[in-house]
Each structure stands twice: as C-alpha cells, then as structure tokens.
C-alpha cells in the first residue's frame, strides 16, 4: 500500500491551493519536496524557500531511501537484550539508551555517562570546547560528530544500511527540527519503517500518528492498535502502557487493565500511575493497584542498577517521549 503523500506535495507552497483534477502542482526542481501551482507562486516563495531548499533536499533524499526500502539486515535488538557494558537488561521503555550514530551500537545511558566521566578524568589537557569534552565512541572509537551536519551524514549512512534505531534517532531530529526542517511526516515515515524493521519503540510512536491522524497521516485506529501491539509484543513497556490506555479509551476496560498490569510488572511507572487513576475513577480495585505496585517494585530491582538510579532526573526527562536521541544528540541539537 502506498504511503500517504506529504502535505508539502498536496498543496501549493505559496498560496496553499490544493492539488486536484484541474490543478497539477509543479515541484521545486532542486529539492523536489515543495510544490507550486505556477511560476508566479514559485517566484514569490523563493525568497524564503531558498534558505531551506537544501535542507528540504535532505528530507526528500531520506524519503527516497525509505521508498527504495533498504535491504540491509535489520539490527536485531530487543529490550530483553542486555547492555553490552554493564550486562543489566536494557530499559524496557526504550528510554535512557545511548545510540552511537557512528556504528549503531547501543548502551544504557548510565554506562555512557560513566564512560564520558572517566574520559574527562583521564584528560591531561583541559577541553577547548564542548565537543572536545565528549569521548570517542566506546565501540568503534569514531570521534563524536562535531556538527549537526556530520551527525546527520552518519545517521543517513546507518539508515541506508536498514538500521531501525538509526531511523528512529533521525525521526527524533525531524520531530525537533534539529539540523533539519522540522517535519512530522518525515518523522512518521522513519518511525514506520523502523517499526517494520523491528523497533518496538518506533512502532509505538508510529502508532500515535495513526491514532491522532497527524501530519497528513489518515486517522486509523485499527492501524494504531496494530502498531501498539507490535511495540508491546516487542517488549516495549511504554507501548504496552499506550495499548492499555488505548483500550480503556475504547471502553475495553478488561483488556486495558490487563495491559497496564503487564507494563507495571515490567517496571513501568506510567502504567502504575494509570492504574491508580483508574482506581480513583472506580474501574480498578485497590487490590489490583497494590498487586501491581509490588510487581513494579520487584521489576525495578532487576532493571535499575545503582548507576542507572544515579542518572539525574533532569537527564531522564531529556530522554522523554519525543526525544529518542541520545544525550549527545540532545546536546548537539541545543548548539544548532
Ligand atoms: Zn500557488
Ligand atoms: Zn526547493
Ligand atoms: Zn549499561
Ligand atoms: Zn561507534
């Protein structure tokens, strides 16, 4: 089934007229990612468009890569996998994970932080810039990208290889407009493809687009549910929570509560919070809440090492939801 058309190609970039039977839009010949109804419209838009035409070209290139569906092998990674450094299972919700744009390897955020701190301690000369403070990749020794451009180039190469987590990380850039033209449609396409390549956390985020009908993606609750299930079955507890909330919204309380209990037992706080809310509203019993709280506590003993507990709450928030990028990327984004 063909993917939905990006909004930029559905209507004139200057006057907003929609394409139709009697109006064929022409695309900007440089980026091919915006369209106009005639030469006058293109001319009037050029002054502002020329500043972002090059960045739009990058967006279009990515979509073309996705359209030609990379055949590179999908990276086999599930939340059950352990962090290769501390050997503690990776966080089940897909957050607080550091992704290296150079080689696509992942560690838990706690290990990445320790690695950075150790490198700082071992320095003999003071760092000359923020980039200089960051150690090279602990797996392939590639230096940390020094600009957004360099980071995006490395990420694009990962995407060409079919790396689902590279796609997901790039999606974060498009959601935030970091070094690219902010574009939820491109983000959606990257997330959808990442989900098809086995990323459970991307499945959840792609599902949200279908649930809400965002960015020109037609609202489709069945598809949303399908993706949430994909994420939940892939072991992503945030996706399981979202599936539970989705079922409750559809008034399928029994199914919804069952999913929330599973997510809570995997150590996901939001699931327990939602069950507590359900208790307040009267569709969850006190016993169920207590039982889930106990299970959550037990799960935390397994997935929260001391190092992970030590991650500053502010850092945790930085990793929240839309921000699927690593802390390095988040820092880079701030620098522009
Ligand atoms: Zn026009
Ligand atoms: Zn252009
Ligand atoms: Zn670790
Ligand atoms: Zn690397």
TrEMBL record:
**GO CC entries:** endoplasmic reticulum membrane
* Keyword hit for Chloroplast: no
Q: Which InterPro entries match?
A: Sel1-like, Sel1_AlgK, TPR-like_helical_dom_sf, Znf_MYND
Any one of the GO BP annotations: ERAD pathway
Please state every residue range assigned to the domain named MYND-type. Answer: 12-53
Sorted alphabetically, the keyword list is: Metal-binding, Zinc, Zinc-finger
User: Which family does the UniProt entry place this protein in?
Assistant: Belongs to the sel-1 family.
| Listed name of the protein | Sel1 repeat
């Amino acid at each position: 089934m063909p993917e939905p058309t990006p909004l930029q190609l559905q209507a004139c970039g200057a006057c907003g007229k929609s394409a139709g039977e009697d109006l064929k839009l022409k695309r900007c010949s440089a980026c091919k990612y915006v369209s106009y109804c005639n030469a006058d419209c293109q001319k009037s838009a050029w002054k502002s468009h020329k500043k972002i035409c090059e960045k739009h070209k990058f967006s279009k290139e990515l979509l073309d890569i996705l359209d030609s569906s990379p055949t590179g092998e999908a990276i086999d990674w599930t939340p059950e996998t352990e962090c290769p450094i501390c050997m503690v299972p990776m966080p089940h919700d897909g957050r607080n994970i550091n992704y290296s744009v150079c080689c696509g390897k992942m560690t838990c955020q706690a290990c990445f932080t320790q690695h950075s701190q150790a490198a700082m301690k071992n320095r003999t000369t003071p760092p000359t810039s923020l980039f200089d403070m960051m150690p090279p990749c602990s797996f392939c020794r590639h230096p940390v990208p020094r600009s957004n451009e360099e980071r995006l180039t490395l990420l694009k190469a990962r995407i060409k290889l079919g790396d689902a987590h590279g796609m997901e990380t790039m999606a974060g850039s498009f959601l935030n407009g970091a070094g690219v033209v902010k574009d939820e449609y491109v983000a959606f396409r990257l997330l959808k493809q990442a989900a098809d390549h086995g990323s459970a956390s991307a499945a959840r985020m792609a599902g949200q687009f279908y649930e809400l009908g965002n960015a020109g993606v037609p609202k489709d609750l069945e598809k949303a549910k399908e993706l949430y299930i994909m994420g939940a079955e892939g072991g992503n507890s945030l996706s399981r929570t979202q599936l539970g909330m989705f079922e409750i919204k559809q008034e399928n309380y029994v199914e919804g509560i069952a999913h929330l209990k599973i997510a809570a037992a995997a150590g996901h706080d939001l699931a327990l919070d939602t069950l507590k809310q359900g208790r307040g509203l009267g569709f969850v019993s006190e016993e169920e809440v207590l039982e889930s709280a106990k299970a959550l506590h037990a799960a935390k003993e397994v997935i929260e090492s001391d190092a992970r507990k030590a991650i500053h709450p502010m850092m945790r928030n930085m990793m929240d939801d839309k921000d699927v990028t690593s802390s390095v990327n988040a820092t880079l984004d701030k620098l522009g």
